[in-house]
Design brief:
With about 375 residues, the chain is α/β, with parallel strands linked by helices. The chain contains twelve helices and 15 strands. Helices cover about 35% and strands about 25% of the residues.
């Protein structure tokens, strides 16, 4: 049995998440540390960063250290028509760190549901995203959006794909000034411009957001997407964390790959999202697969920024002793361990060691 006291916060999260996902039938999926580089070149827009560590295999083929998990899962899973394949993982990926701007090995956990999806699957994945955050900290928010509503409104306003992408970037950045300017410069009507700009401020509890969306969704496609969002809201009614789930229409993932429900999770004390996911049917289709897909990833390296707790100590007791008192140190160490404590026996205080209390057996430390 693993003693959780010796685990880091991100390692404890891995064990808790694996147990949670297993209860819902997600089987552990293990993959290689590297893939053919061509897989990432073909889908570089899906990646968080296009900077990839590459090397040549023994046969000369260009390989890459894995910067993403989802692409590998889609590539390697066998299709089962009419069924859903549910997998979970904890894998290390290799990408540029947002904090250091250098390559870093990042621990990542998550799940994917691929195949004949229905509304239950969307609910289950969103609910598990909320529960995943709750396992780490009670102080969290899960922001959810539906790209179908935004896509429909932008397509009603302009047939220019590049313009729609530019407008999407301003919505994601919550930049109403430039959003309104670009709409005006490109001849979008004042009525459509006002409706698009309203998306920046549409955020809050699920019921209030649905009421605000109702008058904006005038087209058939937008109303169909709104109906899906309303169905998700009803299914989440019994979710213990429904008050921490908000609808936020500035949440915009890459619309070339994602469609439908998308979401991001945030923990208090961490300045960026620690969880990201959504439906990516377009990516499935691009990779020659049928059906749909939804999933999310939790970036465990960011948990290092979470506030320290007593469980984040390296040891409960720092035991200091003189060399000639090794026998006394051995007896005291065994006694403390027998009481359920973790102990580091040292002759001096190590730098950066996090400990609860000191037991000083050295002659100068004795009373």
């Amino acid at each position: 049995m693993i003693d959780e006291r010796v685990l880091k916060s991100e390692e404890r999260a891995v064990y808790a998440l694996r147990s949670l996902y297993g209860k819902y039938g997600y089987r552990a999926y293990k993959m290689s540390k590297f893939e053919e580089y061509d897989l990432y070149v073909r889908n570089k827009d899906f990646l968080i960063s296009d900077r990839i560590i590459t090397f040549n295999d023994t046969d000369g083929k260009l390989m890459a250290l894995k910067p993403d998990v989802t692409l590998s899962i889609i590539k390697n899973l066998d299709e089962q028509p009419g069924c859903k394949q549910k997998v979970c993982y904890n894998e290390n990926v290799y990408r540029v760190s947002g904090s250091t701007r250098q390559f870093k090995e990042i621990m990542q956990a998550g799940l994917e549901c691929i195949g004949a999806l229905d509304r239950y699957d969307l609910y289950e994945v969103v609910s598990l995203a909320a529960e995943s955050l709750a396992l780490i900290s009670e102080d969290f928010v899960l922001d959810v959006s539906h790209l179908g509503i935004l896509t429909a409104m932008l397509e009603e306003s302009s047939g220019d794909v590049q313009l729609r992408r530019e407008l999407t970037r301003y919505i994601a950045a919550k930049n109403p000034h430039d959003l309104e300017r670009v709409c005006r410069e490109n001849g979008i009507s004042p009525e459509k411009t006002a409706a698009i700009c309203k998306f920046i401020g549409i955020y809050g509890d699920m019921d209030s957001v649905l009421r605000r969306l109702e008058p904006l969704c005038t087209g058939e496609a937008a109303r169909a997407a709104l109906a899906e969002l309303e169905q998700l809201r009803k299914l989440l009614d019994d979710c213990p964390w429904k008050d921490k789930i908000h609808f936020d229409f500035s949440i915009v993932n890459d619309m070339d790959y994602y469609n439908g429900i998308v979401f991001q999770g945030f923990l208090s004390g961490i300045c960026e999202s620690v969880l990201s996911g959504g439906q990516y049917d377009k990516l499935i289709q691009k990779m020659g697969r049928s059906g749909g897909a939804v999933g999310f990833a939790l970036y465990l390296d960011l948990l290092e920024d979470l506030g320290r707790t007593e469980r984040d100590r390296d040891v409960d007791v720092l035991l200091l002793y003189d060399e000639e008192d090794a026998a006394l140190a051995a007896r005291e160490t065994k006694r403390l361990i027998g009481e359920g404590k973790s102990v580091s026996a040292q002759r001096a205080i190590p730098e950066k060691l996090r400990y609860g209390r000191v037991l000083d057996l050295r002659k100068e430390g004795r009373v």
